[in-house]
Amino acid sequence: RDFTGVLSVHGDAAATVKPGGPASRHVIINDLHRAAASMKLDFAHHDSPAAMFAIYDGQSSGAMAEAAAKSLHVRLLPKLAQFRGDWENERLEAVITDTIKNLALELGAEAGVSLAVALLLGSRLTLAA
Known about the structure:
This protein is an alpha+beta fold. The protein is built from 3 helices and 4 strands, in the order βαβααββ. The chain has a 4-stranded antiparallel beta sheet with strand order 1-2-3-4, covered by helices on one side. The radius of gyration is 15 Å and the shape is elongated. The two termini are 27 Å apart.
């Protein structure tokens, strides 16, 4: 379904960091359909609008927050594009959770990166941390 006429997604964010403090990053993707197309993925089976907002906090290193910010959507979008059936809430939650866990393992659990994600697909908003 297309909820574009009903829902409009626009995003902006700002971050402040104390000198010598942990760095935080954020990623806002206002149009996941366009982002998926740039990765040569078919995202047409997902409702519109589709957007993602994520906040990453590098507790021990700004480099870890940066790595996570550059990686999560690159890992999540192919998983969302792969399954063409009906996305039940449990399936969507499992894919997001699995992607976050795998990213944490790849970066190293001791990396000290916290993150929160808001994923909008049509009229459904899914939050994960």
